[in-house]
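Tutorial, part two.
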Amino acid sequence: MGISNETSVQAISLFVGLLYICILLDHLLKNNRWISKTTLILLMGSVAGALILLLTQGRTALVFKFDEQLFFNYVLPPIIFNAGFEVRKKQFFRNFSTITLYGAIGTLISFGVISSGAYLLFKPLDVGSLDARDYFALGAIFAATDSVSTLQVLNQEDTPLVYSLVFGESVVNDAMSLVLFHVIQRFDYIPLGADNVVLLFTQECLYLSVFSILLGVFIALLCAYTTKKMSFGGNSPLHEISAMILMAYLSYMLAELFNLSGILSVFFCGMSMSHYTSYNVTEISRTTTKHMFATMSDIAEKFIFLYVGMDALDVQRWEVVLHRVGTSLAVSSSLLILVLLGRAMSIFPLSYLVNLTKRDPDEKIELKRQVIIWWAGLMRGSVTMALAYSQFTKIAHTHEHGGAIMITSTISVIYFSTVVFGTLTKPLLRLLVPSSTITTNIRVCSESSSPKSTTVPLLWNLRDSDAYMAHNIATKSTLSMLITKPTKTVHYYWRRFDRAYMRPFFRASEPTPDDFEDIYQAL
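Running the prediction step on this input gives:
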């Protein structure tokens, strides 16, 4: 951090105190329907930054400088791992084609729109010495939606289908954006209009995606196998918890060591651990790790947005930008318009293609829900900020106006999208999907026993995952529709393979709630 030990202790103490205040405010306003937790923390960070600015007599609004390596190595992994650990794997893979279409193809569309749009709009503005790689990087940076903000704004009980699709898409989107950014950094120079750029991008993306996923799954299976064979039992819950935490972090760091995508690796490691390793440990260890991962993720999320709120008042950077206020506003406005346009060009055409493949009207994504999905994915957050710092921080800290403008514009877009779009999501949701309609849809969907229904929330309830299974079985009044509407999807064949080979080898033999559900579905 470049400051004395005493100053460092003071800065850490101040930041920890601010985090504690954020937790208290979050608890007091948890039932507030108009302000999201992210918006609250951003505003809290800005207030704290303003106070620090006054105390330091205008010298700085920060307690320490942002370090992208700190973010990627320590702050981001708990957030992504917890997302994979808590994701409802059944609904994730049952909606896998739609989620992949939004998250992968949609991200590529947004990437292309933002990159090409930035190149065309920024050239007349003279924003600095940006080369082709910077424009491609801008596409990857602003194509990344913010799953944190989306989760805090949407309610899975009100709109389960929208919640499932937005959350699943945002996770794949973050991974795809990081893969794209990682690929761009591998090229020292990218000539615009080169014939082999698309081929190189495709090869690198496939390589990073496939091997990152395989590494994460391998680490999780290794952890599951060792915890099963070691038979920790009830004597060593400390060893069980330590093994899961260390192996989860190892999946991320090994991916970074091998120049792969750590976010993809740790996400699929979390999914695999929750499916195999969690059933090889005691109930105490299972509950402890679940809440520990959720707690670490929550603190990391608060840390990120608290810092963004404080960094919005960074005096040194604004001193550079103030000499070119018009250019800075034009860049911020252009980026915001490109985000809106890129999101629209990815969601609405892809939703049309998805609806063409759905025969059941209940599974079609109607226009109102498409608008909600489009709007909810407009927010930008932690991944966007970290990538922007990684790309532009070197020239920003040497006071070049190009880097400073890009950093301040990124913070402006994050701040505006989180506060404005995040705050208006709830009213928009109630306008497009009235409460009566939501209730009716939930009732109808719960009575439907079609195993391919996409209206079930994507995440397990943290408090009682077994209760969801019991409720799910109770609401299916008959087996008639399971007989009249059989489905054999990729998920169906995977479950057969999983039950026959994977679970006997990597999971303990005692029955689990998931096994009872398999028996019910088989009947």
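The radius of gyration is 23 Å. In part three we will examine how such features are distributed along the chain.
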